[in-house]
Amino acid sequence: MRDKSDILVIGAGVVGGAIARELSKYKVKIILIEKENDVSYGVSKANSGVLHTGLYYPPGSLKAKLCVEGRLMFPKLATQLNVPYKLCGKHVIARTEDECKDLENLKNVGENNGVKGLKIISGEELKKQEPNIDAISALYSPVAGIIPPYLFTIASAENALENGVKILVNTKVLDIKEVDSGYKLKTTKGVFHSTIIVNSAGLYADRISAMIGLDKYKLYPCRGEYLLLDKNCSSLINSMIYPVPPKVAGVLGVHLTPTLEGNILIGPTAEFIRNREAPATTKEKIKQLIDGAKQLLPKIPLNQIIYAFSGVRSKITPPEEKDSRDFIIQEDLRNFFNLIGIESPGLTSAPAIAKMVVQMIEQNIDLTEK
User: Fold this and answer.
1) What's the pLDDT score for residue 323?
2) What is the mean pLDDT of the chain?
3) Which residues does 127 contact at the CB level (< 8 Å), separation at least 6?
4) How far apart are CA 105 and CA 120, in angstroms?
5) Cα(182)–Cα(196) distance, rounded to whole angstroms?
6) DSSP at 93
7) Residue 313 forms beta bridges with which residues?
8) Which of 6, 53, 173, 312 has its CA 20 to 30 A from that of 240?
């Protein structure tokens, strides 16, 4: 037996790191394991870094609740963890009369979810805020923000480590068995025993769940490609620029996102793929990104594209479904907590998910603050 713990968290992405950090406030022995050679190596390292407001998620859903709660936690969290953060705001632009109706619907959803400050503005008002963007009207959300997702994940893990959490990388789970006193995990770094398991394995959460006999979940890997503009282009936009979402489950369309480093992100695309380890870039999707960017910002200087990359998201919604499924965060077996399908707004929701998981664990064991 390599090690014993009270709680073992599988997956050191943004959500797993946030859970480990939240648990580190209590007098329990915690181990955080990651199959890759560093934290934030999977889904968490390759996304837009957007702190969403809650425009896209059905009222009453976990996505809506945790997105709104999580975003409100970030200003304080960013200060505590010394991670850069900016409230840059967001414009969802309408270029047709039908899209103007869609803006009203988004505004209603956001307000029902408790989002403050939403306002539909005219094309003329938009021009004052975003001189390079043309549209009939736009939905303005002043409380949307940006944060480097990898820095936030690393900072959460480092803080957890400082508070006594043991973090092990290059530790892939091979098998899980339920035993009298909890769970026994066979890994590439030996055997572990823990009273409680938190499955936050991202793209592989369904496979981890199946190891214990819970094989009812299936994730559908969805690759999103991005392009990066040089910092010379930083003045082109002042806020995030989004189109009205296409009628595809969980897809927000190609958008423009300023970064804290001064670059502008174009993306992502959304392509369901078979291989979970296929973060490639393709000519076809790069063309789609360029076309999408031109629709938002016709003057975009394509000769300033300096990099292309992609990430693979863990969607629980099959490609043929029109409505996006909700997060699954539940105790499927005694002391075995599954987090399945934590895609967008997973980054925004991460600190709220962490608090929710801790509250669930508190129902089973006594947690005493340090």
Assistant:
1) 87
2) 95
3) 133, 134
4) 11
5) 6
6) E
7) 222
8) 312
Structure tokens at 239: 């806020």
**H or E element that contains 229:** strand 220-229
Q: Is the pLDDT of residue 77 over 60?
A: yes
Q: Which two tokens stand for residue 87?
A: 């409230």
> How far apart (Å, rounded) are the C-alpha atoms in residues 7 and 33?
11
Say which range, 92-96, 166-170, 245-249, has the weakest mean pLDDT.
Answer: 245-249
Residues whose CB falls within 8 Å of the CB of residue 138, separated by 6 or more in sequence, listed in order: 91, 92, 93, 94, 103, 120, 121, 123, 125, 126
Total-model pTM: 0.97
What phi and psi, each to the nearest 5 degrees, are found at residue 336?
-120, 110
In the Cβ-directed half-sphere of 272, how many Cα atoms lie within 13 Å? 13
Residue 17 and residue 156 in contact, taking contact as beta carbons nearer than 8 Å: yes
Q: Is 52 a catalytic residue?
A: yes
Could you give the C-alpha distances from 176 to 183, 199, 318, 338, in angstroms and in order?
A: 7, 11, 27, 14
Token output for 253: 């369309």
Query: What is the set of domains in the chain, with CATH numbers?
Result: 3-45+150-219+324-362 (3.50.50.60), 90-142 (no CATH), 220-315 (3.30.9.10)
SS3 114: coil
Residues 209 and 340 sit within 8 Å (Cβ to Cβ): yes
Residue ranges of alpha helices (H) inside 82-141 are 97-112, 123-129
